[in-house]
Amino acid sequence: MTGNVKNNASLWLTQTAEFLKNFNILKKSGSDSRIIHPYMVIVNKEISDHVRSWRFIILFILIALTCLGSVYIALANIGDAVKSSDPDNPFLFLKLFTVSDGTLPAFFVFVSFLGPLLGISLGFDAINSEKNKGTLSRILAQPVPRDYLINAKFTAALYVISVMLFSLGFLVMGFGLTMTGIPPTPEEFLRVVFFIVVSIFYVSFWLNLSILFSVLFHQPATSALSGIAVWLFFTVFYSIIVNVIAKAAAPSVTATAQQVVNYHEFILNLLRVLPSQLFSDATTTLLMPSVRSLGPLTMEQIVGTLPGPLPLGQSLLIVWPQITGLIAATIICFALSYISFMRREIRSR
Amino acid sequence: MNQNIIELTGLTKTYGSFIAVDHLSLTIRKGEIYGLLGPNGAGKSTAILMMLGLTDPSSGSVKVCGIDSTTNPIEVKRKVGYLPEDVGFYDDYTGLENLIYTAQLNGFPLNRAREKAEQLLIRVGLTDAANKKTGKYSRGMRQRLGFADVLIKSPEVIILDEPTLGIDPRGVREFLDLIVKLSKEDSHTVLLSSHHLHQVQEVCDRVGLFIGGKLIAEGDIHSLSRKLFSDQPFSIQVGIKFYADKKGSEQDHATPERLKDSIKKIEGVLTAQLSNNTLHIGCSHDATDEIVRVIVDSGAGVTFLNKKEYGLDDIYNRFFEEFDDHE
To answer: CA nearest B15 in A: which residue?
Structure first.
């Protein structure tokens, strides 16, 4: 009896194995004989190159670790954050991304800091390394339009960045869910999704800037350094310069209220040239629903308002210019690299 | 068979004030192996880039397989296989993977691509290295892989830019034999550029001499030499031995001057020079027998006789001299 069962079981097992094997063969031959569009061929190759490259693995580990660190700090301090009477209290879940006790920056600050590094490192050798390896003229001698290559490079990097940021964002949410036991509301979820989308735009701006440098400069080292130089300039020196201007242009004590407001708006607009400023404006508004305006507000505007959170639609309206600005900067960089690549003469090495 | 597969008319490319290619007109017929010869910087690569639409001509037109390369490069690239000078591959991929990638870019599904890549690796003799990363390939192997890469799309025309550069002499020989064998098997038209004369001389049906952006001469090697050395197409070197004084035979004693004079009297001899007991004679037709008879009659001995044929080297040098004179 037991032998019979055993036999039956083994028969069933072999049958299943056979079936699975057949299925696999079918599936394999099915996918093998499919003609993949040349564009997708390049995209697939670029994605696998990125994912297998050491630089991506190192950056991924770095970013994942800082994320975990900031989430840990946020979870440790979330109790204190709830006690204070602040209008963002209904949005406890979002605090996972914004709360910090000062020892380690919050999640969104980390993204604004490491995002450029990620973007630059994925794009700085996009075109020039192909040229230096001698593969560029070989690939462009194949019957594919020239822009496939640069578009595919962008698409692949964008894909990798999106997958990475979404998975990190959802990981943070998952952690929060298990640690606090409070599920996010649909609005909170949507706000996080928008935050991730804005982060992707932000990183893709840096990605395109570095692709532009990779088209312009022949040495990958030069283009990486110029990318980092722009990043340093924007994060460190630009704000110093703006401070100097701010001091010089500061209105006198006797200035009218209008003059003071104009002055503040002027300084803010100077800062808004920075992609990082656009990004942090956009993300704070999205992650802190109580933020009502990104510019100065007069007393008349505040009088009569109840401190409370804005609905998602209103928050999005506030940051719409910022998001548009980020996308525009991204597109400008891409267009420049596209134009200079398409007009380039492709010599070997 | 005499269909023109590559047609260049008045092709010009300028970089600022520098003229890289100067009104190049060239036709290459179907099935022939054409050698584009010229020194470095003559504009060979630029001309090739324009044939593939990788750079735009300043003026003139390029037609490959009847398709305009400037306005419709993708159709041209479907029919033309191009091996760039010093070809590179993705170092982290094996030779097979590199070929499969190219095949997929040409619209082959994965299984056909793999099949084709494996066949070609056998044909170019890289079976053992198929699964080795190309970063570890030698120069000669890279060049072979490059040729397989060119053949994978079954092109009508193959354009090879300096295919023999940096390969050792034996490798060059093998590689050129491979090119000839495979292109004759599949009846491809081949255009190859080189500054190595001897190699090209052996494999090409026709050559074009390309110097300073201009096509200076064109044709097979024989017609080139006839054209160039039209004044004295035959050149003969004779080693002379003058015997020591024989008493009493003043009359027959051969002196260099007398010998030279008598040789110059032979019909067809244009020039005669004597240096180090070697006589250099240029003549309008083959007068070797007459010359030898005159020398022997004069009482001198012949130590060697060399009928010189003009090869590409001489043609090349001659053109350089003429070109430098024009400068």
So the answer is: A345
3-class DSSP state of B233: coil
- Cα–Cα distance between B173 and B167 in angstroms, integer? 9
Going from N- to C-terminal start, the domains of chain B cover: 4-228, 234-308
Which sign, positive or negative, has the C-alpha torsion A178, A180, A183, A184? negative
Q: Do A145 and B74 touch (CB under 8 A)?
A: yes
Contact check, Cβ <8 Å, B111/A41: no
Nearest CA-CA partner of A143 in B80, B21, B227: B80
Question: Phi and psi of B24, rounded to 5°?
Answer: -85, 125
Long-range contacts of residues A18-22, Cβ cutoff 8 Å, at least 24 apart: none
Architecture of domain B4-228: 3-Layer(aba) Sandwich (3.40)
Q: Taking residues A282-307, what's their average pLDDT?
A: 76
Structure tokens, A248: 């010089």
| B225-277 pLDDT, tens digit each | 666 666 666 778 888 887 765 554 445 556 777 788 888 888 878 778 888 78
Domain ranges of chain A: 36-342
Mutate to test the interface with A, among B74, B80, B110 (most CBs of A within 10 A): B110
pTM of the model: 0.81
Please report residues of B whose CB lies closer than 8 A to that of A142: 77, 102, 105-106, 153
Question: Which tokens go with A101?
Answer: 């006790």
> Under DSSP, is residue B153 helix (H, G, I), strand (E, B) or coil?
coil
Q: Dig out the tokens for B324 from the structure.
A: 């430098």
Cβ contact, residue pair A135, B88, below 8 Å = yes
Distance CA A122, CA A113 (A): 16
| B153 contacts on A by Cβ (under 8 Å) | 142-143
Query: Which CATH number is B234-308's, of 2.60.40.10, 3.30.70.100, 3.20.20.80, 3.40.50.720?
Result: 3.30.70.100
ipTM value of the model?
A: 0.80
Mean pLDDT for the stretch of residues A194-204: 93
Q: Which two tokens stand for residue A148?
A: 């496939």
CB contact under 8 A, A35 and B108: yes
Q: Which residues of B have a CB under 8 Å from any CB of A?
A: 45, 49, 52, 54-55, 74-75, 77-78, 80-82, 84-92, 101-102, 104-112, 146, 149, 153, 161
Query: Lowest mean pLDDT: which of A98-107, B158-167, B195-204, B219-228?
Result: B219-228
Of B88, B107, B109, the CB nearest to A138: B88
Q: Closest approach of chain A CAs to the CA of B153, in angstroms?
A: 9
